[in-house]
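Cross-check.
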Amino acid sequence: MTAETSQTLDRGLRVLKLLADTDHGLTVTELSNKLGVNRTVVYRLLATLEQHALVRRDLGGRARVGLGVLRLGRQVHPLVREAAMPALRALAEDIGATAHLTLVDGAEALAVAVVEPTWTDYHVAYRAGFRHPLDRGAAGKAILAARQGHANDPGYTLTHGELEAGASGAAAPLVGVTGIEGSVGVVMLADSVPERVGPRVVDAAREVADALR
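Predicted model, tokenized:
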């Protein structure tokens, strides 16, 4: 800790992170041991977080993440979208195809940011808010590949005709961004994706990941 930081806030945030990493919740004693502080401190932290609905305790006394976190989470998409836009614009203009940032939303892939190229005669219409199963389309499959540890071989995913007849896609996962599962990709009207597109999409995904760290 430095003079510019708050020890209490730091502990509170650590509590939230610990609770977010478990499905069954944690007791006061477990939190006390993990944080290295006494139980009284933990009780005060939990009471404060409960007042803001960021933590809830069940009948057995185990603490879990509260629904108030969802309200904070609703603001994540606009922030992520803003951070990703420069890389998406550059990608769309360079490739001449519609570029998109896609995030996991439950069992689906959700396009949260889309940029269409300005100089092409035609391109695929792809809108923010579009959803599709994770196991269909390059964007979702790139995310699943990252989950399975295959993101670096070759680092991108190619598909054709899975979401729209005649359209091909390329996508690369966001790597190294804590708390966010997503991918950056392009979709184009073509029978196959040109060779240079895959590596270019990987570069764009890396740029977006760097902007989000």
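Residues 76-95 form the longest helix (20 residues). The chain has a mean pLDDT of 91. Passed to J.P. for a second look.
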